[in-house]
Amino acid sequence: MSFILSFTIGRYPISVTDILTYTFTGKAEDENLPLLLFEVRLPRVIGAVIAGGALSVSGAAYQGLFRNPMVSPDILGVSSGAGFGASLAILLSLSAWAIQFSAFIAGLFSVLLAVFLSRYISMFNNRILILVLSGMIISSIFGSLISLLKYIADTEYKLPDITFWLMGSLSEITVKEIKTILPIVSISLIPLFLVSWKLNILSLGEEEAQTLGINTSRLRLVVIYCASLLTASIVSVAGLIGWIGLIIPHMTRFITGPNHRILLPASFLLGGTFLLWIDNLSRSISSLEIPLTIITSLIGAPLFFVLLKFSSRNAW
Asked: What is the distance between the alpha carbons of residues 303 and 284, in angstroms, rounded to a whole number?
């Protein structure tokens, strides 16, 4: 129902009746209806579902791996790295395709840098803690580099473009971009779903998981690279969208429980639906489209407070 209603929301009015009539008969009274449906709203609706679902699964997988409810998809610096890549490409006046490619490569590079740094600092002790701290270092460095690019950017053209991109939007997503990220999202989701039962065992503790035959080092690499690939692919086409990967896994955990075999697919569905309605709000509550992160922050922060209040009564 949310999927169909999202086609009717926007400045150009479309009714559910018009959509159903065109779907089943191929006839439309408004000659603009096919173009509006397939070239404008369909990519946007599908993009919102994929982006929200992917960020939510990434957050749930990270939280399960690190056994920490405060972890989000940008914990290893992937979001700030992707933001730097996109900002640099915008500053250099590169094409839209180059901006997405630069964001994707920079996001993955930031994760690899965080993993390398953690291994250089500590080979045997406190690997999880050192990895998280390394991610914070990388995130801080790329955040500073983004600020530097914004400082030297042209204030009339480049700075607004960089700022708007960093706040997240699905306004320019196309069918071509959906076709580009869909294979990447698919090959990242499948391994995460296949190892979800191992995340359940890992929640008992690393030593207990190793005793039961789980190769925790290999599991950690699979989850980190797949979750980072998910985040980088979404950031490359939609910019930075905050709070989704943090609050949706918590909401889903309240509904389904901590079993990752159910939690991960349920997080995808809930996250996709959540971002779908956030995007509907962004393009309908004012004459100007509001960036996604502004709305997710206004809704996510108080919602996270409520979730923390309820979670304080139960063990995570």
From this structure: 22
Q: How far is CA 275 from CA 49, 103, 228, 269, in A?
A: 7, 21, 19, 10
AA identity, residue 151: Y
Per-residue pLDDT of the chain (316 residues; tens, 9 = 90+): 777 788 888 777 788 888 888 888 877 777 778 888 888 888 999 999 999 999 999 999 988 888 777 777 777 788 889 889 989 998 998 887 788 788 888 888 888 888 888 878 766 566 777 888 888 899 999 999 999 999 998 888 889 888 888 898 888 888 888 888 899 899 999 999 999 999 998 887 778 888 888 888 889 889 988 988 888 888 888 888 988 988 999 999 989 988 999 999 999 999 999 999 999 999 888 888 899 999 999 998 888 888 777 766 655 5
Q: CA 9 to CA 162: how far, in whole Å?
A: 27
Give the pair of three-digit tokens for residue 113: 């840098």
- Closest-CA residue to 115 (of 99, 127, 102): 127
Question: What does the alpha-carbon distance between residue 175 and residue 239 come to, in Å, rounded to a whole number?
Answer: 17
Question: DSSP labels for 138-179?
Answer: HHHHHHHHHHHHHHHS-TTTHHHHHHHHHT---TT--HHHHH
What pTM was computed for the model? 0.89
Q: Phi and psi dihedrals of 214, rounded to 5?
A: -85, 125
Tell me the chain's radius of gyration from C-alpha atoms.
Answer: 20
Compute the C-alpha angle 236/81/131, nearest 5°: 125
| Three-state SS letters, 171-192 | CCCCHHHHHHHHHHHHHHHHHH
CB 198 within 8 A of CB 259: no
